[in-house]
Amino acid sequence: MDSEIIVTDSDLEETKKDFPVSSENISSDCADAEEVTKPAVLNDAGNANEGGTEKAACQCDPCLLDNTQVTACAFCIVCVEYLCKNCCRDHRKHKTTRDHELLLENIPDDPKIFKHIRRMVSCPIHSDIDVTHKCVDHNTHICCFCLADSHRKCENVCRISDAITSSGNTVSQILLKIKQHQVDNQQMSSTKSLNVLELTTEKNNVKVEASEIVKQCTSELVAKKTELVNETDLIGESYLKALKDDVSKCKALEDECKLLCEIIETIDQYGNEIEKDTILMITQEKLDLMDQEKDKLRKREPMHLNFIKNKECFVVSDFGKLQIRNLANENVLVKDEDNSYVLEEVAKGESSTCANEKDNNAQPDRFTVKIGDDFYSCSITGCVILDDGIIVVIDEENRKIKVFDSDFIFLSGNLLTAPPIDICITDINTAAIIYKVAKRIDFKQINVGVISHYRELPTKFEISRITASPQYQKIALLYSLGFTSRNNIQIRNVGGKIIHEISLDNSFHFANREEFGICYIECNLVIIGRSIGVSLLVPAKFNTYTLIPVMALGDDIDVTRHISSDANGNIYICAPASGCVYHFLTDREKPVVLKATVPLSVARDHNRNRIIVGCFGSNTVDVLQQ
Fold this sequence. Notes:
Oligomer: single chain
Number of domains: 4
Shape: elongated
Low-confidence stretches: 1-8, 14-54, 329-333, 337-361
Strand content: 25-35%
Number of strands: 33
Largest sheet: 4 strands, antiparallel
Radius of gyration: 44 Å
CATH superfamily of the largest domain: TolB, C-terminal domain
CATH architecture of the largest domain: 6 Propeller
CATH class of the largest domain: Mainly Beta
Strand order of the largest sheet: 10-33-32-31
């Protein structure tokens, strides 16, 4: 803001004249009512013209407060009230309502549009005063009383009339834009409605195909069952017959043994010597034959029939794979074995190359981060990973914080009050979030995948970056103070108490247009910029700081403020313009270049040895294995 806006008492008096306040202006009953009786068509004398129309006469709103029904003949567009002749005359007599515009002809059938207008032009705090200014710091429209009170210290405040004049917008231009939006919305609505019908049809087709697969599998299983039963009968009966014959032979041998035993006992008692010798010889011969038969029977081992199940028959992984196709970009999302959707094919696009690019052509794995009620394409401006492997991302376009498990299965999500631009971990399960425009830090706790609001820390400035060192209980903020000093660093403890404040522009004479990124490596604050490369901000004497250069940046690296670090001291820089993530290793002079899709944020997953990259305008994150 170039100059400070000072509101004097005379300005307030002038505003009161331009925007008069009266408790009689707007009837609360009328203002809150959603449906109002349609007015009658009036003639020049202000009487209801009942001939040739079926519209009911509208009643005077002020008279209705006295339980009196009088036909209205005018409409005040400021008070949003129907008025009769007497009230219309009183309206012009009162000083506060004298300048109100009254409609004596073309009285609206429904005052709904005028209620919308009053809501739009009225101050949200002082409802009976029209807004005159806009506070850019708080992104709200305010009246002169708000300007003199709650917004008197705001720097970026402008008059609405001046803003409209400087923008060059006219009524015709705005109407043209609205009509263009209407046409675009109608086209999108038509396209999406058609997509709804197509998707519904495709969903039903999938169900029908699944039923057909079940029927086909059922018929094939029944055929296999019949074949197995027939084979069982064929094999079983042949072996059963042989076993039954062996049982019969054993019984026959047993009966013969009984008979021979009786013969020997009888001949021993009643027979002569010759008969005994003959019987003994014949019996011995029979016993020898029995031994041979028993040996044959013993050699025939017990037979059993077992059924060996085919495991693949009982374990059906799936009928097929579901594909969610984006015809415009030819992207295909396929449900993987771990129940997460990944991009199987991605439209090929040209990307710049670098001499230090990692020597592999493998495409990164991609996991979807778009959830059911997301309206816009996702832009993941921040990503952190908790100790238990839980992945937390912030989506600037949809104004959300989302939580996924290590396999990118969605656990929970919350809608945020403003677009989030950065996130960091301040404790084991606590994350700090900063927003575009909003001057505060939100602390969220994530327990077992569930998000809960922990606390809020207001600030006097708009923060552009935030980083933390949980081990040393410190938070560092990069912020700007208008156009005089854009690069300032404030260091706080996790409780919010300010420890140090450093102006990079004043202390180190940097150009106030240069942008920096910050991150913590243990207790050391790393600052990255074009003029300083990678440097450490180190405390010096008398509560001052000094910069210690670590390495320079090559001319081919397009530096942005989106940087991160890991526990090993490695640094990652996101470069959306070139579609690269620069990985600075502690033991190398030049970075390793990793390809990604318009990277905005990056985090290192030590549990799975991978890098997760949040992307702009994409519904997926890139996962780079290391």
